[in-house]
Design goal:
The structure is a homodimer of 321-residue chains.
Chain A lengths: L1 H9 L7 H8 L3 H13 L3 E5 L3 E6 L6 H7 L9 E7 L2 H10 L7 E7 L17 E8 L8 H20 L4 E3 L3 E4 L2 E13 L2 E12 L18 H5 L5 H22 L2 H10 L6 E4 L2 E8 L5 E4 L5 E4 L12
Parallel strand pairs in A: 3-4
Antiparallel strand pairs in A: 1-2, 4-5, 5-9, 6-7, 7-8, 8-9, 10-11, 11-12, 12-13
């Protein structure tokens, strides 16, 4: 199969006759025909012109585990990698794998989610092949009070990775959305398991709208959402983005486990679109001025007092901003 | 089956001949023999004396779902009840049921656990038929910062239930043990699922040493553990204790969801053996003086300053007390 693809790759935009392919690869013409059909089923598109031959018109944008693992330079993250054609949601799969004893660093990716989940029980739109829909299992063993740190550090890693890979100037909107020019490009959903008052495992769910066109979003999301492709003006290689993100996340995660929240906090504040803005979070209204040590957003009210607010204190996250 | 047991109950300590039973119940002698064999498999013990008949020597102390549900006056807790002969651990089963969509109030009981778990990854000794080993599923939807409250309210409910049902003066040792005369009689293990910074589900694991004799404990636990039977001087009916505990827990849980932590805190402090004692928790050493609003233990150090400590801050709970 690879030799056939290599042959097409060596003659870009050319039509190759069945006879020529057969001769070059040393296989029968019916074997050539079978291979091309198999590739078509995998999403490759061939132009077939009678008496002329085949041209490879487009390749499927499908994530390949072997190819990802060959590039990945992490210690743990993604070393155990599950690619799925379709899942209910990668978070649900992560919980199933955790029950079965999955280890830290395990990554679950789905080409398509049929019941993708966002915050506050909202659904998350995740059409096939155009985004990165994934969950990452972490087992940090830190006190429960540190749970908000993990959302913030994941947002930092994702924001920096997007900026580095696509030159798109993504910003973090508290608590856990990534925006480009005011439109949502990515969301993060953390599901955490505590034993007593310590974290034992976290499933970090991350959705990135990579190559979606505007019409790929449901009508109600179109005014509020965009994709990296639209923001950067070209297709973004999902595989490279995934590899880069896992490396970036591991970097910040290891730094956090070694040195604590202080550096994450500074970087988060630098990348945030929420700071210095007027926000309303539940009953609290004022100017967002930073994060405290626990990862709560500090809001300076009109009377001059500063109040820490966790996202858990705000039933409707859309009330912020 | 019930009529046969009723017959034996109406003639305590008597031998009944097969013929007499057959005549009284209006069934064949071979049907009598089959029923007695089936009861033997369920743990009933019959003395069978040739040419005399059968005597019911002892009944199994086995929890029966129908009997429990008939007595239970709760709204939710235990309405969905899973009794198991043997489980790896009721907490593991609770996690499996949660993945499958189990609702609030679901209760899992095992007559025996083969891999019962305590805090900090310790094993929990749970021999068959002599204790109550259970897990209770709650879905409180409260902020993550309130997680410690649930351990404390479960300890309050259990302590009060034991005092009411057995007159044994149990006390709470921070964070989550129940002691009688300085020996452990019960342990609580909370496993909590967060979505972002809100609690979505809790599996409250509770082990109560009800009718264990001292030789039922492993040698290393014997100096440190005791049972309600030993403390109260008589067998304790496990079914009544289970029913009473579920009712008591529901009472305190509903109160907490309605009115918050303040009342729980007062009652916990009144039932605690930790307060006014010198304690060492991690790096903090001093006199335990109460709980704060978050459920942290307040320790007054020698320099007069008071420091809040969560159990999550203490790697070794045995360092406390």
């Amino acid at each position: 199969m690879n030799r056939l693809l290599e042959l097409f790759a060596s003659r870009p935009d050319q039509y190759l006759s069945g006879e020529e392919i057969s001769r070059t690869l040393g296989v029968s013409r019916s074997a050539v025909w079978k291979q091309i059909n198999r590739l078509r089923q995998e999403g490759y598109i061939f132009d077939a012109v009678s008496r002329v031959g085949y041209k490879l018109a487009s390749k499927p944008d499908k994530l390949q585990a072997a190819s990802i693992l060959a590039k990945l330079k992490t210690n743990k993250l993604g070393r155990e990698l599950y690619l799925n054609e379709q899942l209910d949601s990668t978070q649900a799969e992560a919980q199933r794998l955790l029950s079965a004893g999955a280890e830290e660093g395990c990554v679950i990716v789905a080409e398509e989610q049929t019941a993708g989940r966002g915050r506050l029980g909202r659904s998350w739109h995740s059409p096939p092949g155009k985004g990165l829909w994934m969950s990452i299992i972490l087992k940090p063993d830190i006190p429960f009070a540190s749970a908000p740190h993990l959302t913030l550090l994941t947002a930092v890693a994702l924001c920096r990775c997007i900026r580095r890979m696509t030159k798109v100037e993504a910003l973090i909107k508290w608590p856990n959305d990534l925006l480009v020019e005011g439109k949502k490009i990515s969301g993060i959903l953390m599901e955490t398991q505590l034993e007593e008052e310590r974290l034992v495992s976290v499933a970090a769910g991350i959705g990135i709208c990579v190559n979606l066109e505007q019409q790929d979003f449901p009508a109600d999301l179109q005014p509020k959402a965009t994709s990296l492709m639209q923001a950067s003006g070209g297709l973004v290689d999902r595989e490279s983005l995934l590899v880069a993100f896992l490396e970036e996340l591991e970097h910040w995660y290891e730094l956090y486990m070694r040195e604590g929240f202080a550096t994450i906090r500074n970087v988060w504040e630098a990348l945030s679109t929420t700071l210095q803005r007027h926000v309303k979070a539940g009953d609290v209204e004022g100017v967002a001025v930073g994060l405290n040590e626990q990862g709560a957003l500090l809001i300076r009210q009109q009377d001059g007092s500063t109040v820490p607010v966790f996202s858990s204190d705000v039933a409707e996250s859309s009330a912020v901003g």
